[in-house]
Structures are given as C-alpha cells and as structure tokens.
C-alpha cells in the first residue's frame, strides 16, 4: 500500500504541473503527452523495483526458424551430378562424353551452365543413338548427343569393373523370362532393382526416387531401337560390354601416355596411383622416383592385359591364398602364377617389374597382397570404393533375387490347375 501511495503522490504532482502548463498555449498540446510519459515511466519503475523483485524473471524466446536440412548426396550421386551437363524435365543426365570424363578425371571444372534440353533436341539424340554402329568408338562418336540417367550410370560402372567371364551371367540376370534375349521391359527393371539397393544413411537420409519414369535414353534407343520394340541378343550385349571396356582403356592410355603409342613406366605408375588415397602413397611416389628407370615403355597391349587383371581381383585374391601361406608376402613367381590362375593370361615382365618396384615398401622383392589389393580396388573403382562397391554388388544380388523370384512365380503358374 505504501508503494501505491507513492505512485499516487507522483500522479497528483504531475497533474498539478500539467494544469499549470495549460495556461501557456504553446504547451497546450504537449501537456497530455508529458503526463502520459511520466505516468508510464512511474508504473514501469514500480514494476521493475517491486513486482519483479518478488517474482523470478521470465523470458519469452521466439522460436528460431531453422531451415530444413538438405539431404547430403552420396559420393557416386554427387559425382554424377557434377559431370552431368544436361537437364531434361528437371532431371540431370549425362551425355556419353560426360560419362567418359567421369571415369577419367577426378573432378570437372564446369564454368558453363547445364544445358536445358528441348523435346526436339531429345528426339534428335535418340534417333542418332538408334542408328549408331557398335564399336570401341561408340561413346566418343555420340559425344554430347545422348542421355544417360543416374541408374544407367551405375550400370555402366558395373560393366567397367566386371570380368569378361561374368558377361553371360550378367545377361542371364537381365533375361527374366529365360528366352535368351532381353526386351526393353526387362531392361527397365534396372531402375527398380538399383533403387532397392539404396539404403537410408546419413549420406542419403531421404532415399529419393532415382530417375523420372518414361524418359527414353541413349542406351534404350541403342539396345531396343527408337520405338523400343527390338530385342537385345547376348552377342550384342557382350560386344557392347567389351567395347565399352576397351574404349575407356584406350582413353586412359592416351591420357597418361600424352597421346603417344607407348606409355613410359613412370606414366604407368602414375596411372596406378590415380584415384588412390592410401597412407603409403608418399612411399609409392618415392619408390617411383628412385627405382623405376626412365626410357622404358609399356605398350597398349600390356596395359590392356593389366586392366583385365584388375577386373579379376577377387579371383586373384583367392588364387594368392592357394599359392602362398596366409598373410605372407607374395614373391614375383607366386604373383605370376596367381595371375595366370585367375585370368588365364600372363602379365609382361615389364609390367610386373614396375608393379613390384612401386609397391615393395621394404625392398624384399615381395608384396603385401592385402595392401596391394586395397590400392588396386581403389584404382578400379575410381575413388568410389566404399559406396559404389557396396551399391553395385548389392545391385547384382538384387537382380539375382528378382530373377529367382520370377522363375518361382513362373513355375508356380505352370503347376496351377487350368
């Protein structure tokens, strides 16, 4: 009550002052404002020193608006988006040239905007793809006249890392009805199957849909014609896989040989370490500088044989266990024998000598095959070893499951009563 009495006293004093101000016309309009200001100040001071002293302070915090977290792209999806130069119906697509660059280069320096494709341009591309001739120049001939979706990009990566002994198995997995040919409908199962292999992770929490359905692409037009009613035979499929491997091998050889017909051994060593990110990389580079003599070259045929070897690393690892004791370093003779068992071919002495001098870290003329295999898998998978390997191996497992499922359903239908 004492406090309110003080407020009242202040009010009366101010009121008298305001009445005295009314006698001066210049202040007639100001007086009410002064009264209100003083009263408001008094009330606020009273609340601050008396009411708030008896009760704990409280605060009203405005909820901070947080932007929705953008899902992080997986390494392979990010790489696809970086190299894709074409957009159609708000979806990113690679051209055949983009795909070749994506497997040859570590990154792309894209300064131009991605091209927005029109329906007329798409139809022109597909017409050209449907008339393209098979061969090791297919992707280079098509250049920027083509459309490759993300799931097809993953499919092409499997071809580059697949041993040729597995080509027929791959075709059988696509041939759902077992009639020794693949139609467009069977091929389009790739999208659904690859979509099943994607797992929700921190990299890919949303697990988004992969590609826009119903968009025709270069591979579809090439395999099944412009209208999509052709059938893909095994021999055509096998040649496509062999030609693609050969085309990429030629492109990489020319890249590291600087366009020459032969590759220097130090250039070959640089190719071996390309895309690798191992703790011993500095040791390998030092070995290359000290141990590998200059002036000796590797032919494309020798380079190609080694590329085929890298596509058989799993078989090679099994062969190593057969010819040597567990976890023991591998000598040159044992290495050559394991390669012959795994691939049926032999690597040249020129290539083998380069490999041993590069990866022999302690100078005992032996290799730690576990470490060597780790580097070679990084090389074969072009820096996408973890995500791509798990996805692509899972992809083929899913294809096999779908094939078995289709076979069981067909068998069940054949046994059902009429």
Write the layout of secondary structure elements.
Blueprint: H1 2-21, H2 31-54, H3 75-83, E1 86-88, E2 91-93, H4 96-104, E3 115-116, H5 119-130, H6 138-142, H7 150-160, H8 167-174, E4 181-182, H9 184-187, H10 189-197, H11 218-224, E5 232-233, H12 234-256, E6 263-264, H13 265-273, H14 281-291, E7 297-298, H15 300-310, H16 313-323, E8 330-331, H17 332-343, H18 349-359, E9 366-367, H19 369-380, H20 385-415
Parallel strand pairs: 1-3
Antiparallel strand pairs: 1-2, 4-5, 6-7, 8-9
* Count of individual domains: 3
Tell me the distance between the termini: 100 Å
Structural class: mainly alpha
Q: What integer value in Å does the Rg equal?
A: 36 Å
Task: Give the overall shape.
Answer: globular
Number of distinct beta strands = 9
Q: Strands of the biggest beta sheet: in what spatial order?
A: 2-1-3
Helix content: 55-70%
Treating each run of at least 4 consecutive H or I residues as one helix, how many helices? 20
What is the chain-wise order of helices and strands?
A: HHHEEHEHHHHEHHHEHEHHEHHEHHEHH
Largest sheet: 3 strands, mixed
Poorly predicted spans: 14-70, 197-212, 386-392, 413-418
GO molecular function, one term: calcium ion binding
Organism: Betta splendens
Transmembrane segments: 26-49
Main location: mitochondrion
Overview in brief:
One of its GO terms (cellular component) is uniplex complex. The chain is mainly alpha-helical and 418 residues long.
